[in-house]
Amino acid sequence: MTTTTPVLLRTADELHARVRHGRRAVVMTMGALHEGHATLIRTARDLVGPDGEVVATVFVNPLQFGAGEDLDRYPRTLDADLEIAGRAGADAVFAPAVDEVYPGGEPQVRVTAGPMGERLEGASRPGHFDGMLTVVAKLLHLTRPDLALYGQKDAQQLALIRRMVRDLNFGVDIVGVPTVREDDGLALSSRNRYLSPRERRTALALSRALFAGLDRHAAQEALRARAREVPAPHARAEALSALGESRAAADAHAVSHAPPGTPGAVRAAARLVLDDAARLDPPLELDYLALVDPSDFTEIGDDHTGDAVLAVAARVGATRLIDNVPLTFGAAS
Q1: Are 129 and 113 in contact, with CB atoms under 8 Å apart?
Q2: Domain span at residue 302?
Q3: Do the domain assignments include residue 188?
Q4: Does a structural domain hold residue 187?
Q5: Residue 37 catalytic?
Q6: How many CA atoms lie within 13 Å of 165's alpha carbon, on the beta-carbon side?
Q7: How many domains does the structure of the chain reveal?
Q8: Binding site for beta-alanine, residues?
Q9: Domain final position from 151, 180, 209
Q10: Tens digits of per-residue pLDDT, 198-218?
Q11: Binding-site residues, please?
Q12: Whole-prediction pTM
């Protein structure tokens, strides 16, 4: 792909004056672009093709920062953002001022996230999702895309955007893009730059905990699949023991009768890693560990089948980080 400098647009009028031929994809950011954002832009480029248009937005939204959060501290790196966006394939960067997005000051009418917006991140950051949905709604209206791409790292945000688009009949396709990680497993985030080397070592417990839960889940699903190949419950128990699955064989009869998947064991595997990290120097201060239904972000029970999200949020030093992995609990045959 040939790298070009994207057009910098400051007003909606400038954006609307652009001639459109193919489909328009938008990637919304708050700036401080990194490889995660670049992946979103590259994916958008692939989806709309050479005749389409990719617009990246850069706007630090004051509505989604609560009291004591890092609005003033949030990095502003527009020149570097333009370069990264251009290399990834963006045609234009829409970087409006606050009064372009909110003429007349803070909006009196806002989008409310509802019950899903009060859970997990919403409980930790009251009002955050109302501010996020309000600016996403405004930017969708301002940019008028055919599709919009968001990272799965912000799983609850993605779920709420999808719900808003569906509930309020926005004419746009929402595309989720898998989380991009650094070589050591840490999910890419603009806030990673705040971590000292020692804090970063502690922060790696987030991804290790998620992968521990994911590994436990994969082992369970594989074990159950093999056990289901044996028809009788008693034979299943013997088969599990013969497979040498020590943890399951300790209670093979119960495993052979268990509902599909064991969310409690997935949570426990992740929790062990996080508990160990709480004793590090500096310690990891856990906000939440949750295994939820992605449709409403409520905790799932042991009888759950289908998609789920294992999500974690924690603070290391002054930096708050989030991460998650998707997983699927299969139905019993």
Answers
A1: yes
A2: 193-329
A3: no
A4: no
A5: yes
A6: 20
A7: 2
A8: 64
A9: 180
A10: 999 999 999 999 999 999 999
A11: 30-37, 64, 151-154, 157, 180, 188-191
A12: 0.86
